[in-house]
Amino acid sequence: MSDTLSYTTSPLPSSVPSVSGDSNATLCQDWEQSHHLLFHLANLSLGLGFLIPTTVTLHMIFLRLLLMTGCSLFIAWATLYRCTLDVMVWNVVFLLVNFMHFFFLLYKRRPIKIDTELKSLYKRMFEPLHVREALFQRLTGQFCTIQTLKKGQVYAAEDKTFVDERLSILLKGKMKVSYRGHFLHNIYTNAFIDSPEFRSTQMNRGERFQVTITAEENCKFLCWSRERLTYFLESESFLNEVFRYLIGKDITNKLYTLNDPTLSDKAAKKMDRHPSLCSQLSMMQMRNSMASTSDTDDVLNQILRGGSTGSSLQKTPLTKASTTMKPIEEGMEDDVFEPESPSTSQNISRTPREDM
């Protein structure tokens, strides 16, 4: 075939508008009519949602609710008036996402039902410290039990019951704390039963109670397993600080009642303050006196009598110095790093010879 075929290709239509000499050719000449009212209401709903300040308590719930309203209006506008499938599908996806967030926020703010036996405990001890009801329910609903004691039954026996087994708060009734048959103080409702032992044995395990705790009335108390409670508080730093504060406050109140034998039951129940300077001094004198004498029963009897206990003990010439324990001095911490004087070293060296 000698004849050559010649093909003529027509130019493809260009998607880019041709620029003519007139500058208005690339601009919109005729604006379309405004969209339906649903379109404007949808945008207004989105705008109001973004304008909600974060200082509003339920701002996230209001935001999700307005976003869901806007998406629903967009779906109605795209389906009924524009017939655009892609706009409808995208807004359906946005609506589902916001609905899940909205449902989760409502679930977090659901009303928490606290047991009737624990309501007074929560109102008195935990609610003033801004512990939420959900966190309190987690604390009391998984690894603690409510136990009872009849009048005369023993919660802890001196030198017999181990300390590191539990931690309890008295919910109802009254308990008595005694040492070698001598009354020390009472434990009332909404107070820790064994807070001093819990604090003193955080590092040393396997110790036993040094006091006897007996129920003077029919009692009901909330009891935690110490090991599980410690493990839970390690994961909840805020609640851990709350427990440290409550236990320290409870120990302070017990020290105050221990040093004020004239305190009545009603005053002890309402007591919520730190010990005075006089009570702190009497506690130090009591510890020094018991540490510097060998007969602790006589010292305890004198302490329990009240009055000028510390002064009488210090002025008694019959107290014998203990060979194992020394009195606690207020200025001991300041003298730790001071060099010893020659006079003190000579006195120390002469002491064993005089005893012999």
From TrEMBL:
Polar residues biased stretches: 310-325, 341-350
GO aspect biological process, one term: cell adhesion
Matches recorded under SUPFAM superfamilies: cAMP-binding domain-like (SSF51206)
Keywords associated with the record: Cell adhesion, Cell junction, Cell membrane, Developmental protein, Glycoprotein, Membrane, Tight junction, Transmembrane, Transmembrane helix
GO molecular function ontology, one term from the record: cAMP binding
Glycoprotein listed as a keyword: yes
Main location: other
Cell compartments where the protein resides: Cell junction, Tight junction; Lateral cell membrane; Membrane
Keyword Membrane set for record: yes
Membrane topology note: Multi-pass membrane protein
Transmembrane region(s): 87-107
Domain POPDC1-3: 35-260
GO (cellular component) term, any one: bicellular tight junction
Annotated spans, Disordered: 305-356
Domain of life according to the entry: Eukaryota
Pfam families with a match to the protein in the record: POPDC1-3
Membership in a protein family: Belongs to the popeye family.
Name of the protein in question: Blood vessel epicardial substance
Lineage: Eukaryota, Metazoa, Chordata, Craniata, Vertebrata
